[in-house]
Amino acid sequence: MSPPDPTRPTARLPARLPAKLIVIHGPMFAGKTTEVLARIAAAHARGERAVVIKPERDTRYAADEVVTHAGERISARNARSAADIVAVVEREVDAPALVVIDEVHFFASDAVAPIDALLARGITVVVAGCDIDHFGDTFAPFDALLPRADERVHKTGSCARCGGASTHSERLVASTDRIIVGGAAEFIATCAKCFRPSRR
Ligand SMILES: [Zn+2]
């Protein structure tokens, strides 16, 4: 084989930069979805297609949109389970360069395999969600994803008790369910010191 001619544009060059895993994590009300929207805007500015996937059970605000607590919104595809994620992407007419999985903790460890499948296809994956549950334990899949992320964005808000940096999501009403769909009526965000874990 002859060496590539650097003066000639060639189809051998990769169509885009290598796929990356970007993990946006933190408590509720810390601006995670706002960060997601900024990533999508940046992708669009580069001329890239982005697809947003969210768990179907997250019906807090809108069935087919991701909405920040501040009211910004973008259309999203629902995935009933983690096993649906790749199929949802495959249904897209034009393959996206970027796939966002919002509220990824709803899928727990099941999210890891489809994320790997998308990365293997050269698709950058942005995941966003709560990294600590209301018991104070690490929320899967962040235990698996954080060590291998190409980029980690730890969002914090302000502690509802002391005003310090919030890292935890505290459940205000007793519940033994690990995953609860809720907003400001059910949760506050606190720092680690002020956090009162739910009882099992
Ligand atoms: Zn505090």
General description of the model:
This protein is 16% helix and 23% strand. It has helices spanning 32-45, 85-90, 112-120, 142-145, and strands at 21-25, 50-55, 65-67, 73-75, 77-79, 98-101, 124-129, 151-154, 157-158, 165-166, 168-171, 187-190. Strands 5-2-6-7-1-8 form a six-stranded parallel beta sheet, sandwiched between helices. The chain has a two-stranded antiparallel ribbon with strand order 3-4. The longest helix has 14 residues, at 32-45. The radius of gyration is 19 Å and the shape is globular. The protein binds zinc ion. The site of zinc ion (ZN) has 8 residues, from loops. Zinc ion (ZN) binds next to loops.
What ligands are attached or bound here?
A: zinc ion
- Please give the largest β-sheet: 6 strands, parallel
Report the strand count.
12
Class by helix and strand content?
alpha/beta
Shape: globular
Q: How far do the termini sit from each other? A: 65 Å
Q: Provide the gyration radius in Å.
A: 19 Å
> What is the mean predicted local confidence, pLDDT?
87
The low-confidence runs, each spanning 5 or more residues with pLDDT under 50, are none
Helix content: 10-25%
Per DSSP, the total helix count is 4
Output the helix-strand order.
EHEEEEHEHEHEEEEE
Strand content: 15-25%
Strand order of the largest sheet: 5-2-6-7-1-8
